[in-house]
Amino acid sequence: MDSIIAYFNGERVQCTIGAIASILLIACSIFFLFQQKVFLKGIAYAVIPLATLLLVVCLGVLFGVSNHNNKVTTFYNESPGMIQSEEIPRVEQVIKTFSNLMKVEIAIGLIGLILAIVFWNNELIKGIAIGLMLMGLVLLTFDFIAESRAEKYLILLKSI
Description:
Elements: H1 2-33, H2 38-78, H3 80-118, H4 123-158
Helix pairs in contact: 1-2, 1-4, 2-3, 2-4, 3-4
């Protein structure tokens, strides 16, 4: 039971950090938009939508994690079979989703790298490229950590 609670607490902590990081990234990017440097504006153009996406996802998880924790705790205490029929398939799907998301995030970073190399002399595109590489790395890191935690949680669920 403690491991189940620890999993959901881990989600809560990571999404709190993600929400704070997103707000800081968005704030810095808004500041960059008011600077006279096209390079900084380029970074902002790439960071704002991706950081907003991270913020929305993190807030969604934060608002739903308590209900989900209660649901799984109820399964554990009252109907362990529901863990096998409902929670395990859900977590397996979450892990597949993380795997797909990480491929997209790697592609975002690689697109940024290619743009940076090809358009190094264009300050706007170079800024966009740096922003894409930054956010690709940030998103990949968050999803890698979340996927690792979900894989451990899945092993735990299968042992119940």
